[in-house]
User: Fold this.
Amino acid sequence: MLDSATDCLPGPYQHAHARLITDGLPGDVLVLSTDGFSLPLAGEPEMRSRLAGQWGETTVPGLAEFLWQTQVRARSYDDDRTVVCLWEGP
Assistant:
């Protein structure tokens, strides 16, 4: 039987995990997201490259631009896309 159930926020926290892989440096972006965003981010090199170009600029995107950037079209990744980003300032 195919099961398409997914965990969602603020739901089962026992499945939540986080890793800090470096100290925050100017221009770094900390991304907190549900699996509908983190899975394609981890699995699709084109998405990582595109977002690195958009989010690696010296200015933080406005709300409308940020929402547009997070609405990715990636095959089989049509889950909830809750995304919070924190940009490290200069």
